[in-house]
Design brief:
Helix 4 (about 85-100) runs parallel beside helix 5 (about 120-130) and helix 13 (about 265-285) runs antiparallel to helix 14 (about 290-300). The longest helix has 19 residues, at about 205-225. By secondary structure, this protein is α/β, with parallel strands linked by helices. Strand 2, helix 4 and strand 3 (about 105-110) form a beta-alpha-beta unit. It contains 14 helices and five strands. It folds into two domains: about 10-160, P-loop containing nucleotide triphosphate hydrolases (Rossmann fold, 3-Layer(aba) Sandwich), CATH 3.40.50; about 205-300. It has a five-stranded parallel β-sheet with strand order 2-3-4-1-5, sandwiched between helices. The structure holds zinc ion (ZN).
Length: about 300
């Protein structure tokens, strides 16, 4: 690959983006589609970094640093993390587009496009139909089927898949020929389909052990409806550095496994997965962690 993405896996998708950039055949709107928590937003931000950097995505220039921190003046991360994106939000997007920019492109990153209400989507369509020059939308969705066909027909879709446990185990065996089979298996299992994460688990046995412990905690928590037990667990993880992230990851893992089993609770599990994703975003935005997590606990 030409650019330093620092992402293992999703190779086909990254190569397609690189090809579009190199051939000058960029779409004005991209939709990165696939299950939640497999790194679509990360890819979106890196793609923005590639487009804005004047030095082949060097990771060092002000432009690269600003995009990765979310503070680039012409790379606008749509900040709404509510359940829906309304018509007023879309209006604000249009205003943002009319401002003159100094950079290579004006880029708008929008997470979970499926949150857009129908009136908002219809208004958004007009922007997609008559895009401003050098404006690129990079959007993600967990579920293409929830989008209006008219919107889908105006974007270039890049489909993302979570890597299978088998693929990850194979990759890990290549990367760590000395490692014992049991560790490889566990790292693959708890990687949430992300190779980068699997590698980190193998390189840090403490983190792997912590993941296994939290995995069992989450299974116990989800099987109880006892809210005070759940809240008291929150107290514990809020005091430990890094524990919240592991908790969210393991809850995602447990719910995804339940989803694969099928059954009457499919919709409930999908909702819960989406809530976990939102909670992760809220926490990055400096929302009170206790509040965000208590809310999540009530909704699981
Ligand atoms: Zn750069």
């Amino acid at each position: 690959m030409k650019y330093n993405w620092s992402i293992i896996g999703h190779e086909k998708q990254l190569l397609q983006i690189e090809h579009d950039v190199a051939s000058g055949n960029l779409a004005h709107a991209y939709l990165l589609a696939g299950p939640n928590s497999i790194g679509k937003s990360t890819v979106a931000r890196k793609m923005a970094g590639i487009l804005q950097c004047k030095n082949d995505f060097c990771h060092e220039c002000p432009s690269c640093l600003q995009v990765s921190k979310g503070s680039h003046p012409d790379t606008f991360e749509f900040a709404n993390h509510d359940d829906s994106i309304g018509i007023d939000d879309v209006r604000r997007l249009v205003e943002r587009l009319t401002m003159t920019g100094q950079s290579n492109y004006k880029i708008l990153l929008i997470r979970k496009l499926e949150r857009m209400t129908v009136p908002a989507a219809n208004s958004f369509l007009k922007i997609l139909e008559e895009p401003t020059e050098r404006t690129i939308f990079i959007m993600t969705t967990d579920n293409v089927r929830l989008l209006l066909p008219t919107v889908i027909s105006r974007v270039r879709i890049i489909k993302f898949l979570s890597s299978s446990v088998e693929f990850l185990e194979r990759k890990l065996r290549e990367l760590f020929p000395e490692e014992d089979a049991e560790t490889i298996k566990k790292a693959g299992l708890f990687s949430l389909g992300m190779t980068g994460r699997a590698v980190r688990l193998i390189e840090n046995p403490d983190i792997l052990a912590h993941n296994i412990k939290v995995y069992h905690d989450v299974q116990n928590l989800l099987s109880t409806r006892n809210i005070s037990a759940r809240f008291s667990y929150l107290n514990d993880i809020l005091e430990e550095g890094g524990a919240v992230e592991t908790f969210l990851d393991m809850t995602t893992h447990v719910l995804r496994s339940k989803l694969l089993e099928g059954g009457p609770d499919t919709r409930k599990h999908l909702n819960a997965l989406s809530k976990i994703d939102d909670t992760g975003i809220l926490l990055k935005k400096n929302v009170n962690p206790r509040l965000a997590l208590e809310n999540l606990m009530l909704g699981l």
